[in-house]
Design brief:
Spore Coat Polysaccharide Biosynthesis Protein SpsA, Chain A, 2 domains, single chain, alpha/beta, 14 helices, 10 strands, 343 residues
Amino acid sequence: MRDIDETPLSHDETAQAFQADVRMLSRRRLPSIAQRYPVVETLRRIGTDFLTAQQSEHTLHQHAPIPLTISKHYADAARRVPADPPRISIVTPSFNQGRFLERTIRSVLAQQYPNLEYIIQDGGSTDHTMQIVDAYRPRLKHVASGEDSGQAHALNLGFRHATGDIMAWLNSDDMLLPGTVAYVVNFFLQHPEIDAVYGHRIHVDADDQEVGCRIMPGHNDEILRWVDYIPQETLFWRRRLWEMAGERLDESYQFALDWELLLRFQAAGARFVRLPRFMGVFRVHDTSKTTSWHDVGQREVRRLRTQLHGRPVSEAEVYQRIRWYVQRLAWGKLLYRCGWIRH
């Protein structure tokens, strides 16, 4: 491998680096698995995802739809609630996602956590969103619907009503897996020095059929300076961190708002931990904001990298910096497809 301090790779050299990494993976690590699963395609897709900092249908829809099954021990985790449970606040920003929103709401309320503040901030939806919300209003801490300037603005409005010691947001087409909240709370109670946690994610289609996943390696602060790899729907943080980072999301970002917040968390000295558990469900569908990433989203990512590193950063250099992490992501997927990692 080239040293990261050398001249950044050209696009042709980046392609060659991909091929070299694939040969290394096939030759040196678990060759029997490499023969059972298309390593080249796996590494190429993951590399493309990170190089362009995008999440498209191509990179998220990884295999044919299969039924989503969750082990019983996930739901059992919801029963392991501490005697004096700290308050947790979750905000869902919503706009015209009525066909998915009820599944999102139910995934939160089904956590059965006794000290939960659930807040829904709607942007003035014109579909049946508010009819769905009204059915659950008695179990919600706060509901509002009105015009906003985008997702970050909606989240800021919602978080103004949050008083929890632990905080998170869940988009209106995503879901939490059973027992996630209790699992997170127990970890925070056992590790008071940790500021933020996240975990593995599952990808589902519009019909709740599993179409992919992301198995997260252990946390790495340096990698986070080059790419946003943390699955947002699995992220939980302490209020103290939110306060140190300014208690807001940057409303100038439409797509990279979560990475911008994570970088401010990092600048505030946050201690992150990747938990070894599937925690959230990311929905892949044709109307999701993520699938329209190409223009504005990539421009925002370039803006953040330029601010962070003090100069424009090429995609080839990004891969050069994160290539070992991409390999670990690829092997996580291989282990999952072979049944060695399960949910």
